[in-house]
Design goal:
By secondary structure, the protein is mostly beta strands. The chain has strands spanning 17-19, 34-38, 45-48, 54-61, 70-77, 80-83, 89-90, 106-113, 121-130, 136-146. The protein starts with 16 loop residues before the first strand and ends with a strand. Keywords: Secreted, Signal.
Length: 147
Amino acid sequence: MLFSVFLFSSTVNSVFGQSIKYETCGNKTNDPLSVIITGCEDLKICTINRSEPIHSSLNYISPIDAPELRLNIWAKFFSLWIPIKSEPLRVCGQYGVECPIVKGKEYLYNMTANAPWLQQVQTKIRLMLSSPENKPIVCAIIEIHIV
């Protein structure tokens, strides 16, 4: 598993990071309004220090109503998207996430991950929040360099 701990809350203090460049995940997904990762000095390729917690957030407007929210994370290796966890992480009712998710409402969630065992690598990470039926709510692909 690439990320071991995720903590969500419904507010973020944007002084901890700035919006970084991200790729869209293709059609049928909702692009975020912003993606923030603390400590990213290069807005194109985010350097992440594996010995420090990784603080990030997604700001988006939900395109659908959903009773729950789930986090799916993949890493790209040799042109293949590999899931970080076999099952999506349920985030409603935990980490301060309020559900149900309401269509047209703006949301802002913080994530904190600790992963000191990561290998040094440059890759892409795809983050997607979805409904229990795997309908995408928001999705972004970010390029990272782990040191």
